[in-house]
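Appendix B. Raw example, untouched.
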Amino acid sequence: MSDDVVLDFDRVNRTGLAEAVYCEGKSLTQLESICQTVSDHRRSMLLTRLDASEFDRLDQQFPGLIEYDPASRTGFVRPTPLRSSVEVAIVSGGSSDVPVASEAERTLAFYGHRSLVITDVGVAGLWRVTERLEEIRTYRIAICVAGMDAALPTVLGGLIPAAMIAVPTSVGYGMVKGGETALHSLLVSCAPGVTVVNIDNGYGAACAAIRILNQLNR
């Protein structure tokens, strides 16, 4: 392993969440070093923000090591087997939010948690979410992904009892300012108890859900 890459294999024992590798900004040499170390130690690893071109080059050197999903730009190395139960609903406002919702879904799946994914139910057509409301109410945790004015998490937060984790996305025109408007809107949400993660951070939302599940299932 190169001197500028130090993996924290013990993190899962301290926190219940293993270290994930954020690939964006890392050199191919660093990613190759990480894959070599993970392979040599036969450890599990979640890779996020991994471009398809980077995956192709890694897969040539480490064939079959990484299970890759292009929609979420995530890679799995030895994920936890999926549980039979589903405890988390992932609800997104529009189809443009799917990559962020997919990152949340894949992060949960890496840790063995299945999730229900409901897409394109933004408040511009409120009937789309109300049609699924009774189904969403059956889940203990809801991750809600929305851009533009990010109204969907506030609406859901006033209608369902689940722990609510909101993810603002950078989707939208002009004054969305790369997701800042959605973030600010969620931080002043009038629905009490809505937890907000950073812009486009589906990974962080899933980790928050996993921390809750780990405590509920102790």
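End of appendix B.
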